[in-house]
Amino acid sequence: MPVFSYEAVREDGKRVKGIIDAESPRAAVLRLKSKRQVPLSIREETFHAASQPATSLWSRLWHHVGLTDVMALTRQLAILLRAGLSVTASLTAMVGQMDNPYLSGVLTNIRERISEGSALHEALRGYPHIFPPLYVESVAAGEESGRLSEVLMGLSDFLNRQITLRNRLLTSLAYPVIMALAALGVFLILIIYVLPSVSEIFKTIHQPLPFVTRVFLAVGGWVQAYGYWVPIMMAVLFLLFLRVKRTPRGRLFFDALWLKVPGVSQWVKKAQIARFSRTLSTILTSGIPLIKALRLTKGVITNRVLQASLNDVIQQIGEGKALGTALGRLFWVPPIVTQMIAVGEESGGLEEMLTRVADMYEEETEAAMKTLLSVMEPLMILFMGGIVGWIVISVLLPIFNMNQFIR
């Protein structure tokens, strides 16, 4: 059934926008009028499966579905299914409640495919930019085992933890970024507004200026004359960095580099262990076999060096070795993790033990980030104070010399 986006006016005079499915534009108009809304514009939309990423800026914004959106719809679908509604009825109830119009259209198309006889995971597979393979395979396992609502609730909890961890990291990074911007702002204000006045005063002094003052004037003059090139060059270098990083060789190089930086390497390893354990626990709880679960979990490891090392683990599991034994050969997995996993395998509680490992290393990841930032903060304060002190000394030193000359 076609899907239409519309803009209409309600009885109270407010304009509303939304998505509605109808057999034709005329039928869409009649449906809106039955809701006592006067349609202003109606346009048929297509929400096809995105096999290729959007290219234009508007397309990326229109097709953007955040992790929070996916978590919310997953939890809502799980609650509706647990209440006894069918998948089709649940999706029908959810379509009109989505704030994201593109997501609302996607759910409408998924509902139509299910009405035509497709399974939920088959319909979700058409939108890999919204529902990754890990998500789809978990839903497939839930449908096969008859525990779809439980699997969806587990997926929503998993996504919620990912969102919480991401927000904590962003919050931790906010202070250093603000400090850096403040230092840059102070420097630019002094260079642009203070320097011209000070330089005029120095021109009247018929004596050699101190070295620090000459350096200050030279830097200030260069910034005033060519400072606009700095953001341009930074933007070019940043785009070049992104272009190189997107290549397989470039991404592998930078991923290997992070593992060699003191302090950062430990944080990267702990973060990847937490993500690996949490994801594997969620997938195994869905009923997916271990080897297939490991293949899916490998995709959530963002560091390519660590991701490639999991190929040996999958091969060893296929040869009949235990998960704890196979992980013990990886340089980035500490012995305590392999021991906990081995205990979980022996006791039959592997999923629960993986969850404990994830909880432990998520806390350690946050602690490692705070430690790293606690070292960066005083360094940035010293750097900022050094810049301001250099500028102050550069301005005051000639004045002191002038006073001594007058005496």
Rounded to the nearest angstrom, the distance between the terminal CA atoms is 93 Å
DSSP strand tally: 3
Shape: flat
Helix content: over 70%
Poorly predicted regions: 48-61
Our count of helices gives: 17
The neighbouring-strand order within the major sheet is: 2-1-3
Sequence of secondary-structure elements: EEHEHHHHHHHHHHHHHHHH
Let me know the average pLDDT. Answer: 80
CATH topology of the largest domain: Receptor-associated Protein
> Which architecture of the largest domain does the CATH hierarchy give at level 2?
Up-down Bundle
Bin the strand percentage: 5-15%
Structural class: mainly alpha
Main beta-sheet annotation = 3 strands, antiparallel
The structural domain count equals: 3
- What's the CATH class label of the largest domain? Mainly Alpha
Could you tell me the radius of gyration in angstroms? 29 Å
